[in-house]
């Protein structure tokens, strides 16, 4: 039964998408009921599958799944199907929770239940509505999003894409889900398409991820041409992997290496790794639930999920302890570099969401790096915990922004940027629930020891990197982790501690329950989900709870990886960087009142190492020049237009010739008019016969009858 | 010349004379009534031919229904009851010529065929022609198909006549 | 029993030709239908006469006569309905004046 | 005694012998005897007709609580002859603009369309004009001649009331011919013949009125409509169209119409007797007992037939003098929406049951037929009641609306 329930997991969001788009888009309440109901159904199915999977012994060897024949390819069939193995079970678990939480959160975020805005137009964020209370006072209150139903339709489709991707048992449907998410990210980042920045961000996200997707498609094509199948189960057969690993391809890499590299470029795009990281910070232009959706629950997780999924291929021919092969080396390098690189940028950002965006890039770099050094389970573990606490942080930041906007409404001061952390401060009193949950999320991100989930997953990465001797990666990641704790504490300090720095922050207020409830739920997971993966050798705590996650997810691989030997060095490092970072962050920013006092507002970091400008100079400008000068002016206007014009002139001449010399005299006058005239003349003479008088006809027919009878009798009958 | 022949000749002359009046009389109502008289002559011919059923049906259908319908139609299609002008076309002589030609040809053919000089045999005793006719009309071996088709034809004629003659749709 | 078949046939032929003359010479559409009725009756006389003079046990002649009755009734019903309809529209039943279909 | 047992053939045989003795050829003698027989039959019918004038006037007087003719002759029996004299000596008017020939033929045709019915009416087992095997259709054919006569009268009078009366009459007759033809098939099925004598003989054991009372009632109604008598006397309708088709006729020409109508009514009484009450016979097998053998005597049978016919005639008169006239649209609706469907149902019922019950004894057959008719009648009445209730409700609502406004 579980084999078939899986098919149904992606279905409700899709149905919800079509229902809302086609039928209910006028009614906001029905629309969000449908969307949340669909997300709830998928959540229910996911939990059912997950719980069933928990009950199966050695689940990695007895996965759920079914497949159908889809496309005949010669004598065989191209099969598509669904599969839930331990890895996808873990992923589907966090996807279901975060998606449901984000859906519910969106109801509050888009001000459901508030009046329609005074000047709101579709395509721009709502500006607020003026109401008059019973005492006659005028208040400005938040107004409902004009494209409310459309938003729920899009995120439903987004959820459909993610579920499809997770339950796929082959690269093709995975890619389909992948691309649907690409489309949805475009639609949702550009949800407020009235803002030029949102438009540009949407295009940028779409174009940047496209680069990765093209390479990924190449990888898929390569793998299909090599193996004749896209099904994971076929590809990951030991014999097949062996063959892939031993077949040399280009650049001195094996086929497996090339394929792994190509697919990894897809991940680089999707999960915003250097050098394709530039779209993700800009994607903050979308509504905050979308940011949470993209950066926590679905899109970037999908990239990491895919590369984890393809780990057997990437690591084909490699075993623990061996030096990394080229592909893994590249992956480890990019992951570690991105982790550090993004963390440094995050330190200098003032926008509350941008800090989180760079932190996401950085954390994804952690996972990629972990995978690159072969720490399969650690990468998956960090993926899960990160999804929870990052979703929590984004939703929390959305709540903060919402609170700030509320303050703006109250004061009527619209010059204050509600996302700038230097305009905040002291919000812990105004927004206690948001503060506590945000604090939990931030500590989890920083890896606050013992309590939070982030500590355990990050610690595992450190342990793996140290235990397997990848010291460069270990050190880089440690620095990155320190920076992470630092900028997290900077953010929390600037936002919640101290005194309100603006009047707006003074009047900020706590959000509604639809927004805080998901925060609380996610906070629980941000704390609790780390405890399923405590290493067994860990002092004091180890062994109280079994290292369930390691065994469960590890069983996905043909050869269950051994837990790394316990060592104090990474643990102490982890403790130091986390606590140290937090402490430094608090110390440095508890007195800071304005950006001027911030010592870290270095232009290089502030401007993200000038990557946008670099890309602009390297790619956008030349492309613009090329299309303007070469394609338009030379190719199009001169060459192609010239050819076309001469063809047209020739045709004109030819047409004139035919018309004047052949068509007019011969066909028109002789054949056309001549036939007509002949017919007309004969008709006008013959029409007298048709008198319309019945008796003429009768007389004529009887007369002919008589004549023919006489003829017959005398000519034939008489013989 | 036997009595039967005399009766036949009288009936025939009566029929043909009435028919001639039908096509020549100037008053249409009288033409219709002459038609009744001609049809009555035909009825007598049926009786002489011992086709009792047809004789009676001739009266019921032709005189009782068709002739009455004609009279109705004549009355309904004029503004005053009197007829005006000639009822005959100017080139009636062509029609007369054609009719005479056809008649001459037919008579020539009939007289030239010796088989047509036969006399009727007495209907054998025990042959109930009425019962035979009834059986033939509804027997699947015989004429049930034409009979049913004819009844469908009558139904469609009924519907069609009602539709055509109804005033609906003409009211402005 | 003493009447030859040819008498009936000649009578029927004459009746038919009178009807034909009526159809071809009358101006009034109803009169044309009257002529048609005469022609149909002539046909019926032939049918019944052949039935009587060939084999009275074979009912084909009478059956066909019955069907001719039905056809005649249908024809008169529809024909007269058409004529009345035409009269309502164009106020005439002179066949030569009803020439909408000419040329 | 041959004369007493078969008077007609006895006299005919005697006359034939006389004529051939005079030297006439055989066939000519036969024709002369037929002509004489026809004349006698017509004279008998006309004499009866004259007496019917007296009967009619007496009965209507009694219905209207009067005495009726009583001055001339015993019980006023000579009164009709006085009427005839009056009519004959009246001025015979032909209106200006009338179609003279048609105008004069019409009354003759009207009377003769009735008289030809007597050709097939069997007065006794051996006294009848002709035994046609299509007798029942002959009744219908004669009826259509009657309608032709009325049209001729109405049209040729050059009078709009006359023409209106003729139109109404034709609508009436043509409509009611349909249930009549349908219901005439019921006796045909029951007797397995269309011959009037055959139908009479088939009823020697059981009257068809008992086997199919509904058929009898339908035939009675459509016969009255065919006669054009009240409540279906729309062709005359003195209060509306003066006197209908015969408004221009005077003197003996009117007399022919009048006589024709009376004789027509009596003739239909006779047909009711023949078709549904056993005609000259129908003693439920009584005549088979030796003691009642005298019932088979032709003179006795004639008396029995006349008595039954007179009863039918009396019923028709009863209805005529008790019922008001109904409107023409009601009359047509009654025919097309009620009588014709009912006649079809009765016909189908009879056709099926006569095959189903064929093996039962006479009393079982009769019981089955009778009870099936009762069931159909009950259902019909229930349907009518429901329809009436609905109609009354609609009318009440309309009345309420009118009252409100």
Give a description of the structure.
The complex is a heterotetramer of chains A (719), B (172), C (103) and D (405). With 172 residues, chain B is an all-alpha fold. Chain B contains 6 helices and no strands. Chain B has 3 domains: 1-85, Four Helix Bundle (Hemerythrin (Met), subunit A) (Up-down Bundle); 86-117; 127-172. In chain B, α1 (3-24) packs antiparallel against α2 and α2 packs antiparallel against α3. Chain B is globular and about 55 Å long. Chain C is an all-alpha fold and 103 residues long. Chain C has a single domain (5-94), classed as Orthogonal Bundle (Helix Hairpins). The radius of gyration of chain C is 17 Å and the shape is elongated. The model of chain C has no long low-confidence stretch (mean pLDDT 85). Chain D folds into 2 domains: 1-88, no CATH class; 90-365, no CATH class. The model of chain D has no long low-confidence stretch (mean pLDDT 84). At the B-C interface, α1, α2, α3, α4 and α5 of B face α1, α2 and α3 of C.
Which labels suit this protein?
heterotetramer, B: 172 residues, mainly alpha, Four Helix Bundle (Hemerythrin (Met), subunit A), 6 helices, 70% helix, globular, D: 405 residues
What's the topology here?
The complex is a heterotetramer of chains A (719), B (172), C (103) and D (405).
Chain A: H1 2-8, H2 11-24, H3 28-54, E1 64-73, E2 76-84, H4 86-109, E3 129-132, E4 138-141, H5 148-167, H6 171-189, H7 196-227, H8 232-235, H9 238-246, H10 255-270, H11 279-282, H12 288-297, H13 299-309, H14 311-314, H15 326-347, H16 352-372, H17 376-411, H18 427-430, H19 432-446, H20 453-467, H21 471-496, H22 503-506, H23 513-528, H24 548-554, H25 568-589, H26 603-606, H27 611-686, H28 694-717
Antiparallel strand pairs in A: 1-2, 3-4
Helix pairs in contact in A: 1-3, 2-3, 2-5, 3-4, 3-5, 4-5, 4-12, 4-17, 4-23, 5-6, 6-7, 7-10, 10-13, 10-15, 12-17, 13-16, 13-17, 15-16, 15-21, 16-17, 16-21, 17-19, 17-20, 17-23, 17-24, 19-21, 19-23, 20-25, 21-25
Chain B: H1 3-24, H2 28-48, H3 52-76, H4 92-112, H5 129-138, H6 144-165
Helix pairs in contact in B: 1-2, 2-3
Chain C: H1 5-25, H2 29-53, H3 60-90
Helix pairs in contact in C: 1-2, 2-3
């Amino acid at each position: 039964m579980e084999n078939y329930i899986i098919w149904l997991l992606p279905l409700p969001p899709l149905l919800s998408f079509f229902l809302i788009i086609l039928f209910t888009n006028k009614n906001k309440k029905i629309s969000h009921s449908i969307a949340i109901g669909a997300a709830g159904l998928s959540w229910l199915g996911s939990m059912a599958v997950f719980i069933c999977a928990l009950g199966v012994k050695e689940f990695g060897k007895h996965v759920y799944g079914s497949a159908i024949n889809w496309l005949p390819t010669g004598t065989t069939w191209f099969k598509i199907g669904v599969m839930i193995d331990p890895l996808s079970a873990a992923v589907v678990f966090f996807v279901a929770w975060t998606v449901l939480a984000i859906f519910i959160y969106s109801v509050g975020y888009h001000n459901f239940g508030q009046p329609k805005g005074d000047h709101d137009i579709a395509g721009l964020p709502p500006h607020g509505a003026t109401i008059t209370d019973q005492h006659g006072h005028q208040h400005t209150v938040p107004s409902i999003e004009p494209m409310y139903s459309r938003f729920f339709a899009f995120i439903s489709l987004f959820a459909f894409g993610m579920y499809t991707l997770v339950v796929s048992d082959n690269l093709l449907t995975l890619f389909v889900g992948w691309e649907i998410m690409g489309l949805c990210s475009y639609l949702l980042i550009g949800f407020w398409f009235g803002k030029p920045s949102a438009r540009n961000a949407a295009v940028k996200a779409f174009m940047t991820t496209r680069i990765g997707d093209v390479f990924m498609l190449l990888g898929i094509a390569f793998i299909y041409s090599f193996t004749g199948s896209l099904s994971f189960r076929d590809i990951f057969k030991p014999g097949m992997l062996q063959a892939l690993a031993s077949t040399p391809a280009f650049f001195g890499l094996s086929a497996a290496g090339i394929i792994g590299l190509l697919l990894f470029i897809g991940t680089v795009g999707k999960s915003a790794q250097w050098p394709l990281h530039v779209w993700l910070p800009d994607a903050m232009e979308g509504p905050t639930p979308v940011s949470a959706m993209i950066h926590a629950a679905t899109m970037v997780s999908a990239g990491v999920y895919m590369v984890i999924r393809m780990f057997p291929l990437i690591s084909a021919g490699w075993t623990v302890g061996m030096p990394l092969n080229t592909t893994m080396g590249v992956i480890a390098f990019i992951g570690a570099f991105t982790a550090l690189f993004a963390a440094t940028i995050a330190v200098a950002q003032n926008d509350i969401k941008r800090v989180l965006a760079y932190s996401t890039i950085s954390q994804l770099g952690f996972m990629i790096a972990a995978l690159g050094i072969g720490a399969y389970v650690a990468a998956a573990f960090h993926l899960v915990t990160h999804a929870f606490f990052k979703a929590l942080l984004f939703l929390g930041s959305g709540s903060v922004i919402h609170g700030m906007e509320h303050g703006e409404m109250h004061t009527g001061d619209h010059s204050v940027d509600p996302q700038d952390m230097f305009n905040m401060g002291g919000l812990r009193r105004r927004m206690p629930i948001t503060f506590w949950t945000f604090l939990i999320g931030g500590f989890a991100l920083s890896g606050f020891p013992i309590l939070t989930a982030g500590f355990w997953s990050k610690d595992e990465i450190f342990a793996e990197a140290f235990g397997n001797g990848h010291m460069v990666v270990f050190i880089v990641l440690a620095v990155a982790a320190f920076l992470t704790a630092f900028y997290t504490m900077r953010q929390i300090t600037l936002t919640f501690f101290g005194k309100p720095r603006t009047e707006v922050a003074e009047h900020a207020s706590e959000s509604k329950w639809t927004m805080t409830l998901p925060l609380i739920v996610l906070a629980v997971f941000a704390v609790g989900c780390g405890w399923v993966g405590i290493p067994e050798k860990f002092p004091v705590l180890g062994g109280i709870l079994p290292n369930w996650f390691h065994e469960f997810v590890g069983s996905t691989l043909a050869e269950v990886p051994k837990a790394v030997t316990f060592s104090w060095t990474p643990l102490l490092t982890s403790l130091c960087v986390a606590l140290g970072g937090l402490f430094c962050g608090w110390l440095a920013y508890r007195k800071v009142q304005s950006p001027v006092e911030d010592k870290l507002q270095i232009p290089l970091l502030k401007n993200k190492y000038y990557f946008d400008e670099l890309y602009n100079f390297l790619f956008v400008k030349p492309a613009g020049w090329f299309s303007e000068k070469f394609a338009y002016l030379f190719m199009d206007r001169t060459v192609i237009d010239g050819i076309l014009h001469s063809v047209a002139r020739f045709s004109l001449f030819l047409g004139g010739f035919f018309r004047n010399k052949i068509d007019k005299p011969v066909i028109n006058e002789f054949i056309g008019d001549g036939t007509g005239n002949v017919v007309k003349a004969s008709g006008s003479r013959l029409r007298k016969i048709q008198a319309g008088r019945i008796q003429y006809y009768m007389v004529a027919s009887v007369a002919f009858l008589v004549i023919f009878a006489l003829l017959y009798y005398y000519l034939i009958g008489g013989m | 010349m036997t009595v039967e022949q005399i009766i036949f000749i009288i009936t025939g002359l009566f029929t043909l004379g009435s028919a001639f009046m039908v096509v020549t009389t100037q008053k249409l109502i009288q033409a219709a009534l002459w038609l009744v008289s001609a049809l009555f002559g035909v009825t007598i011919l049926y009786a002489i031919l011992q086709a009792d059923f047809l004789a009676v049906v001739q009266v019921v259908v032709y005189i009782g229904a068709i002739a009455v319908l004609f009279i109705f139609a004549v009355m309904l299609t004029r503004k005053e009851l009197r007829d005006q002008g000639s009822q005959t076309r100017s080139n009636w002589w062509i029609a007369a010529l054609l009719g005479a030609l056809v008649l001459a040809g037919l008579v020539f053919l009939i007289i030239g065929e010796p088989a047509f000089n036969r006399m009727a045999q007495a209907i054998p005793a025990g042959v109930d022609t009425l019962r035979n006719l009834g059986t033939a009309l509804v027997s699947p071996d015989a004429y049930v198909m034409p009979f049913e088709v004819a009844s469908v034809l009558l139904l469609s004629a009924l519907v069609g006549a009602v539709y055509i003659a109804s005033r609906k749709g003409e009211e402005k | 029993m003493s009447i030859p078949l040819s008498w009936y046939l000649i009578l029927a032929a004459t009746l038919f030709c009178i009807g034909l003359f009526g159809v071809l010479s009358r101006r009034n559409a109803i009169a044309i239908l009257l002529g048609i009725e005469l022609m149909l009756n002539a046909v019926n006389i032939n049918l019944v006469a052949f039935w009587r003079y060939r084999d009275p046990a074979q009912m084909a002649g009478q059956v066909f006569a019955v069907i001719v009755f039905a056809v005649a009734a249908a024809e008169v019903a529809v024909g007269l309905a058409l004529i009345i309809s035409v009269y309502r529209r164009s106020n005439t039943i002179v066949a030569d004046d009803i020439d909408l279909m000419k040329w | 005694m041959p004369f007493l047992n078969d008077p007609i053939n006895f006299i005919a045989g005697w006359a034939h012998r006389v004529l051939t003795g005079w030297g006439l050829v055989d066939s000519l003698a036969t024709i002369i005897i037929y002509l004489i027989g026809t004349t006698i039959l017509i004279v008998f019918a006309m004499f009866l007709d004259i007496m019917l004038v007296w009967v009619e006037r007496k009965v209507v007087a009694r219905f209207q609580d009067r005495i009726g003719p009583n001055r001339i002759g015993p019980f006023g029996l000579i009164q009709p002859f006085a009427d005839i004299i009056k009519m004959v000596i009246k001025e015979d008017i032909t209106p200006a603009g009338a179609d003279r020939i048609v105008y004069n033929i019409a009354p003759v045709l009207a009377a003769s369309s009735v008289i030809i019915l007597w050709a097939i009416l069997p007065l006794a087992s051996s006294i009848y004009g002709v035994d046609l095997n299509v007798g029942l259709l002959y009744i219908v054919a004669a009826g259509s001649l009657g309608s032709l006569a009325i049209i001729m009268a109405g049209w040729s009078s050059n009078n709009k009331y006359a023409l209106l009366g003729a139109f109404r009459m034709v609508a009436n007759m043509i409509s009611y011919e349909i249930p009549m033809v349908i219901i005439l098939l019921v006796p045909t099925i029951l007797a397995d013949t269309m011959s009037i004598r055959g139908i009479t003989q088939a009823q020697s054991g059981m009257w068809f009125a008992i086997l199919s009372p509904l058929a009898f009632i339908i035939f009675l109604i459509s016969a009255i409509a065919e006669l054009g008598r009240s409540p279906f006397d729309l062709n005359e309708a003195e209060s509306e169209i003066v006197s209908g088709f015969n408004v221009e006729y005077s003197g003996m020409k009117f007399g022919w119409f009048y006589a024709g109508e009376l004789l027509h009514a009596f003739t239909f009484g006779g047909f009711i007797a023949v078709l549904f009450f056993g005609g000259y016979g129908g003693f439920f097998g009584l005549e088979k007992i030796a003691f009642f053998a005298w019932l088979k005597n032709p003179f006795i049978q004639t008396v029995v037939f006349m008595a039954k016919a007179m009863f039918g005639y009396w019923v028709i008169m009863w209805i005529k003098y008790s019922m008001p006239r109904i409107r023409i649209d009601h009359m047509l609706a009654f025919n097309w929406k009620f009588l014709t469907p009912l006649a079809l149902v009765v016909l189908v019922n009879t056709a099926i049951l006569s095959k189903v019950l064929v093996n039962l004894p006479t009393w079982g057959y009769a019981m089955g037929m009778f009870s099936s008719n009762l069931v159909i009648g009950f259902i019909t009445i229930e349907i009518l009641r429901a329809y009436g209730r609905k109609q009354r409700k609609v009318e009440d609502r309309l009345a309420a609306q009118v009252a409100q406004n």
